[in-house]
Amino acid sequence: MSLVLADVLAVTERLWPAAGTEAWDASGLVSGALDAPVRRVLLAVDAVAATVDEAVASGADLLIAHHPLLLRGVTTVAEDRYKGALLARLIRADCALLAAHTNADVVATGTSAVLADRLGLAEQRPIEASDDGDTGLGRVGRLTEPTTLGRLAQRIAELLPATATGVRAAGGFDDPVETVAVCGGAGDSLLGHPAVRAADVYVTADLRHHPASEAREQAALGGGPALVDVSHWASEWLWLDVAAAELRAALPGLEIVVSELRTDPWDFQVVQ
């Protein structure tokens, strides 16, 4: 039986319900006709020129990106602006675009849960739980074998795809670590959460100077976690394989491909 875009959207709604989308977010269908046939799907963290080119060149009928292309206010899709150029390229190639962002973060198999699973965390629970107690932002759990901050940072570096910025840590290399809080993507909004404050270490991305500094100063005064800062793209890229497996199970007639392209924005780092 041939599938159309509406069939795929019914499955993605079940996997990543729109009700889980944060109020500020822009998840959902960006472009595409509901009755258009879909045979091949490409999954990527970002809808950028490289992944759009990959989708078009590979003959994909749908690009599912974690990050919304039209997250903030857009007043033009003229093709001299990159967002307009990307949309035009996708539309001309009959390739739809779907964003699954915060609605894919909060589910039990979402970005943070995948990262927590890959770290081997037991007794997982959301940091900021929804009413059902099973979904919500971030995850916190316990390592089955305690380690040190330095060894955990090394393990994370081996687990994530390589990026120019690598893995940064704030805390003593030999500090003991057992309880770990994680949030895929930008997670400094959770630095003050009681579940994060009670953890031995908090693993997230995009930690800015002032929030990180204040969290470490507060930890020195009254307790709090060490910090591990990773690439935003890398922290969420692991989720793509899980999302692909879920789509294959629900839609066995589709060809599901995960993009291997690095869309982290940084190209190199000069070490002083």
Verbal overview:
The chain has 272 residues and is of the alpha/beta class. It has two domains: 5-101, NIF3 (NGG1p interacting factor 3)-like (Udp-n-acetylmuramoylalanyl-d-glutamate--2,6- Diaminopimelate Ligase, Chain: A, domain 1); 106-233, Udp-n-acetylmuramoylalanyl-d-glutamate--2,6- Diaminopimelate Ligase, Chain: A, domain 1, CATH 3.40.1390.30. 33% of the residues lie in helices and 24% in strands. It contains nine helices and 13 strands. The strands form three sheets. It has a six-stranded mixed sheet with strand order 5-8-10-11-12-9, sandwiched between helices. It has a five-stranded mixed sheet with strand order 1-4-3-2-13, sandwiched between helices. A two-stranded antiparallel sheet has the order 6-7. Strand 10, helix 7 (194-197) and strand 11 (201-205) form a beta-alpha-beta unit. Helix 2 (49-57) runs parallel beside helix 3 (82-92). The radius of gyration is 19 Å and the shape is globular. The protein starts with a helix and ends in a 14-residue tail after the last strand.
List the helices and strands in order.
HEEHEHEHHEEEEHEEHEHEHE
CATH-defined architecture of the largest domain: 3-Layer(aba) Sandwich
What is the rounded distance between the termini?
59 Å
Find the count of extended strands (DSSP E, 2+ residues): 13
Number of domains: 2
Number of helices: 9
Helix and strand composition category: alpha/beta
CATH topology of the largest domain: Udp-n-acetylmuramoylalanyl-d-glutamate--2,6- Diaminopimelate Ligase, Chain: A, domain 1
Q: Spatial order of the strands in the main sheet? A: 5-8-10-11-12-9
| Mean pLDDT metric | 96
Overall radius of gyration: 19 Å
Q: Classify the helix fraction into a percent range.
A: 25-40%
The best one-word shape is globular
